[in-house]
Amino acid sequence: MQDTITSTSARPTARVFRWRVVDIVVASVVAVAAGVVFWVWGQVQNPISGPVTAVLPGFQGILNGPWLFAGVLTALIVRKPGAALYGELVAATVSALIGTQWGFATLLSGLVQGLGAEIVFALFLYANWRLLPALLAGAGAGLAESILDLLYWYPGAKPEFAVVYTITTVISGVVCAGLLSWLLVRALARTGALSRFAAGREAAGRV
Length: 207
Known about the structure:
Elements: H1 2-16, H2 21-55, H3 69-78, H4 83-98, H5 104-123, H6 131-152, H7 159-191, H8 198-206
């Protein structure tokens, strides 16, 4: 009897980490939509990057947040290992296919950003999807991207530039990828659009 109870209670935990068809479909839809947003932001960013950069060397990192949200948003909805990496990488691929000036580097950025967010959710054992992990995941994506950018785009940059760029990128990640993704998931959950996901059921339980 005890073995049966133990086995039964263990099943839900095991299922948490298994991707369902609906997880793959929704994660893909979210990632594709995010890829379109990436492309649009690429068009918007170009004319404003000059004035922003003129504020302070490295301050352009504040514009990086919109590149970082796909992984965090996908993970907050699907809540499965690999969701952050999948969401960010697919979004980057879509953006690259539409056409960006960064070419292959777009995919590299997607991989690094996704890993940055994924590591944070893994540290929480994929069991905590509240605001704090979301903010930290946004920060993780921002930190990972700033390291990549400093090595790939700004090799030999002065320490002051590197510090400002890293701090502003992380802040942008916390706000755009962390906070805004968390708020968006809550808003979607209230509409019933996420009823097949834990995020939606939690929202329904709070009403």
